[in-house]
Amino acid sequence: MTKVASNHTIKSGFYWQRSHKQQQTGAWRPTYNFGNSTANPIDSTFGYANAALGIFTQVSQASHYVEGNWRYNQIEAYVQENTKATFSHGVCPDCYSKVVKPELERIRPQ
Ligand SMILES: [Zn+2]
Fold first, then answer.
1. Which residues contact 5 (CB under 8 A, 6 or more apart)?
2. Can you give the pTM of this predicted structure?
3. Sheet of 8-25, strands arranged across
4. 91 has a pLDDT exceeding 90
5. CA 57 to CA 77: how far, in whole Å?
6. How far is the CA of 83 from the centre of ligand 1 (A)?
7. CA 95 – ligand 1 centroid, Å
């Protein structure tokens, strides 16, 4: 949006982005324990062999998917004003002659 009034130009703008992302979170694959168990008569007594034979003592797995419901809002706004004022060395010509020049003459060594 832009508005012009005499020497002033005022602009403003607005940006809003909304985002939504469904994403599974956490581990969902099962974990197996191939450790030895004396209670199991077919246990190989060696973990790697148990894994190769598919002998495990425990399996754990999440009972359902945990799905994140990620949302975010990005909001930006700005207001800008232009006055068409001109400056030289940070001081306008009027202020230079009224303020800066007398001050420089006052502190200048005689
Ligand atoms: Zn000035």
1. none
2. 0.38
3. 2-5, 8-25, 66-82
4. no
5. 60
6. 13
7. 4
